[in-house]
Amino acid sequence: xxxxxxxxxxxxxxxxxxxxxxxxxxxxxxxxxxxxxxxxxxxxxxxxxxxxxxxxxxxxxxxxxxxxxxxxxxxxxxxxxxxxxxxxxxxxxxxxxxxxxxxxxxxxxxxxxxxxxxxxxxxxxxxxxxxxxxxxxxxxxxxxxxxxxxxxxxxxxxxxxxxxxxxxxxxxxxxxxxxxxxxxxxxxxxxxxxxxxxxxxxxxxxxxxxxxxxxxxxxxxxxxxxxxxxxxxxxxxxxxxxxxxxxxxxxxxxxxxxxxxxxxxxxxxxxxxxxxxxxxxxxxxxxxxxx
Amino acid sequence: xxxxxxxxxxxxxxxxxxxxxxxxxxxxxxxxxxxxxxxxxxxxxxxxxxxxxxxxxxxxxxxxxxxxxxxxxxxxxxxxxxxxxxxxxxxxxxxxxxxxxxxxxxxxxxxxxxxxxxxxxxxxxxxxxxxxxxxxxxxxxxxxxxxxxxxxxxxxxxxxxxxxxxxxxxxxxxxxxxxxxxxxxxxxxxxxxxxxxxxxxxxxxxxxxxxxxxxxxxxxxxxxxxxxxxxxxxxxxxxxxxxxxxxxxxxxxxxxxxxxxxxxxxxxxxxxxxxxxxxxxxxxxxxxxxxxxxxxxxxxxxxxxxxxxxxxxxxxxxxxxxxxxxxxxxxxxxxxxxxxxxxxxxxxxxxxxxxxxxxxxxxxxxxxxxxxxxxxxxxxxxxxxxxxxxxxxxxxxxxxxxxxxxxxxxxxxxxxxxxxxxxxxxxxxxxxxxxxxxxxxxxxxxxxxxxxxxxxxxxxxxxxxxxxxxxxxxxxxxxxxxxxxxxxxxxxxxxxxxxxxxxxxxxxxxxxxxxxxxxxxxxxxxxxxxxxxxxxxxxxxxxxxxxxxxxxxxxxxxxxxxxxxxxxxxxxxxxxxxxxxxxxxxxxxxxxxxxxxxxxxxxxxxxxxxxxxxxxxxxxxxxxxxxxxxxxxxxxxxxxxxxxxxxxxxxxxxxxxxxxxxxxxxxxxxxxxxxxxxxxxxxxxxxxxxxxxxxxxxxxxxxxxxxxxxxxxxxxxxxxxxxxxxxxxxxxxxxxxxxxxxxxxxxxxxxxxxxxxxxxxx
Lengths: 291, 762
Fold this sequence. Notes:
The complex is a heterodimer of chains A (291) and B (762).
Chain A: E1 6-9, H1 13-22, E2 27-29, H2 35-40, E3 48-51, E4 61-63, E5 69-72, H3 77-82, H4 84-89, H5 91-97, H6 103-108, H7 111-116, H8 125-130, E6 134-139, E7 142-147, H9 148-151, E8 152-154, E9 157-158, E10 165-171, E11 180-186, E12 197-206, E13 209-218, E14 225-226, H10 228-234, H11 241-250, H12 265-290
Helix pairs in contact in A: 10-11, 11-12
Chain B: H1 12-16, E1 32-38, E2 44-50, H2 52-56, E3 60-65, E4 99-100, E5 106-112, H3 115-123, E6 126-131, H4 138-141, E7 156-164, H5 168-174, E8 177-184, E9 197-202, E10 208-212, H6 217-228, E11 235-239, H7 255-264, E12 270-273, H8 276-282, E13 289-297, E14 303-315, H9 321-332, E15 340-349, H10 363-380, H11 385-392, H12 412-423, H13 425-431, E16 440-451, E17 462-469, E18 475-479, H14 488-500, E19 507-510, E20 513-514, H15 529-556, E21 563-566, E22 569-572, E23 575-582, H16 583-592, E24 601-607, E25 614-625, E26 630-641, H17 648-668, E27 700-703, H18 726-738, H19 749-758
Parallel strand pairs in B: 1-12, 10-11, 14-15, 18-19, 26-27
Antiparallel strand pairs in B: 1-5, 2-4, 2-6, 3-5, 7-15, 8-13, 9-10, 9-12, 11-20, 13-14, 16-25, 17-18, 17-24, 21-22, 22-23, 25-26
């Protein structure tokens, strides 16, 4: 039994915004796969709900004329896996999305929920980070956009203001065309698990040199993180073993893994270094195949 | 032949279609729910408790604390009653306590109309504690100044030692080589799909009816009587379909409480159902062991002695703690029975959740220690791991050093040969270089096991069965033994059909046990059902057959020696093709003929006084990814000598389930304790890593069928043995691949990281 104080079902984004604005304690619920677990634990913070699960306008993936990919926040991970736009242009997002929970969870869990819950471990976060995704939010004061890495503010904290709904994630053509990417989730189990470390790498190689490199990690800090310093160092380097060694040695300087009973810091660091190298190697391999 | 055939499980369709009814599927008008108030400290005393606000909450029927329960201490371990006062279970529990012994100890309970009201009421209870130092580390628990977790215990449940087969010191003196090792196993939890749940009501003002997910209805009835000071005749326990137990329901956990509550509340039905988070701390876990082993060998690599010093931690309450480590030692002794066997064991209390019975009862822990040490021994001689075990492992005719009785059937060596062949041991050995380099390496591992077929002679082994011939020529089979998912109903029905000459479909097993009507059997544990209960079923079936033939003889005038039953017909014994009449004809006549007959029933009870041992091994082929600290199982096989296999498909299923659980304990699972507070970090199925189907490789099972002479169908146990030997086999394969000996469980990436780092591999 769940101790729910108020529950409203919204049929549109505007209705959801209105409902959220009326009740500052209310939070939007999409798939409910995190919130219902909190409610099972009698967590009072989740007892006022605005259900956006059936808001159809949030549930599509489109590609705009200029090539911008627009991912509705209400897309389930199963839905993303079936989207030809995603599969053909940014398969790395499905590598993250298909590692969420198990099939039943992926049938209802949404990409918007995975980002908005602010978890340092969100499986779609590091692919979206290396795709330079921007977040679109709509609220009582209108629409605003911000880069995903700015949206994350701390563990469990995102820059979603009262009354706001994340409507979509946008990926500009320059952030995926000519890029290749790969994601690997390191967890204690092959399914039904949260990442111990999640790593995504994206790269763009021109004339054998790195024209762009992005690395995104989950569970390597209080929020999902990009590796800015390492990325900058990589720029212009040859796409070779030297690059991979540099990345392996540099990546920890960008990250802040912590000690917890779930995993010790030195163990996480070992996995981070190994993944940085292996995941980037795979992304580079894909780039070669692309050419 | 019905025995030996892969007939479909009698409960299979009902279970996979969701039609089987479990304890929580039953409800009654006016049923209330109960919820425990659990302590928020792990060691101390409740100095103040105020329940007045909780009691005043609308929808609350009652709030009871340690002040309200009978001042009666009882034991919860689900063993048969022992006539020997030195062999009684340890009585150390009250229904509720003010003396807190683990974080989550039960200090009060609320009964209310629903879960939410009950939860709200719990939040309204005021409690103050006096805290003592949480005793989690062994050095603290056994320190002279330690507070006693149970008064007068010195924090020791039991110490036990024995030497079997010779003079330890003399043999040690003769040994050419002494291999020493120390091995630690972790706390794991059963994680049966169906959590603990029970409800109770009173059918009149004197008698209590308890419906419970239990492996041991008859024992539960006795223990409820002990806890509430009631004669068992006033208690009725019903066990419907059950979603797994693995030993955690061989303990009496909720039944005395629901009985107490309904009695207090004028007999209204009260349900007490633990959720997963509660169950993982508030029921039982597997005992963690810390085992020091010495293996003595002569210059040819023959094992001359095995010497243990084993420490087992039982947690807050004794439960099965007094018996598990010695049972593990005794059952594993049969692996290398020609060696002198010396065993020193100590079981201690601690301020962590109570450990109890769990599948294979101490043997997985002991086998991990022995089979790791044996691997070191083999390698110290440069001997092949398989050859070493073939040289030293048990053979039929070997005598147990403990019981002095010969091992009558032993398929150990054949199992090893079979496993070796299945995994292609020699070919892979030859193909792989001895000194591997690189980040990803291959390894092969082997480990053997032995186990019992019941608890005799430590405990009494009673079993009973009843068969009733129906008017349609079928028979109802009632047993006191419990189907808990292992397939015993099916195996017992096969044996009944075989003896009777009935087709399998003509046996209807009454799967639910009800102590008011079910014949006495102590229940499902110790892998005893096919071996022990099977013997009662066989005797019952023989009786029924004799009675059917006697009535057929009255009808036909044929001497009953001339006829028998084949394929549901009465036939001429000499020429079974000649059917005289059907069993159905006999039944109709017996029931309804005005001048003769009556209901044809049979009942037998039998105490088994044997305990044949089962043997087998695990072979595994793995890949170790060194930088990722990860083991991948490429191939794994379990080979079992469990005597004649009654049902090959359910037997294979049992082996697969055990192997998956064994792999979980080897590589994934660990209940983690905060050493400072005694808090369990991961009492949920997200953070406690039971492997998923994605983590379990294809599982190979094979059987070496010996014909056990003490069982009517040649069968021996198979319930628990499949879980025993995966961890040491995998550990030995990691050693093979990397040269690193991992001597603690689980061999999760976190553990492997620590060892690889120490070894300089990463």
